[in-house]
Model the fold of this input.
Amino acid sequence: MIQTFPVPRSLEDTDPQATKSGDVSFCSCGATEEQGHTFGCISDQMARRKASTASDDAAEAPATIQPGRPGTPTIVHVNRQHIGMNAKDGGNRPVYTVKCPDGTTRYAREVEFEGKTRAVYDGRQLRCGARAWLETEFPVTLIDEMSFQEARAAV
Done:
């Protein structure tokens, strides 16, 4: 089943490829304002990113995790417990867990990979219980990054 939702704000603000024809706006994905977009449309993603950065004018700059020793990757996985707690109480805890090469663990709402990244699922699991994760030895930028205590308190 495909989820749909209304076109965000003005297409011209969110999608440089959007065009206006008469009274109907067309997005680069082909949807009109009346049709709505499919979940994950690039215009929707751009609108959400623009809205979140506009509302966080005084927010801290993203943290960048530099690569460690060769053979020591940065590992990123989804935290199912935070997703469950957010669904239960309407919280906004970060759902990405980032295990840094120096041994620290950070949490973020968004992760940007700056180089080659590998998705791993090989039947084993990490100590935290994750069974699938992403590994990279390149820099990783964490958006809205925080510690475990800050992440658990983010409601």
User: Anything to note?
Assistant: Confidence is low (pLDDT under 50) at residues 1-28, 33-50, 52-58. Helices lie at 11-14, 42-55, 80-89, 148-153. The chain is about 20% helix and 25% strand.
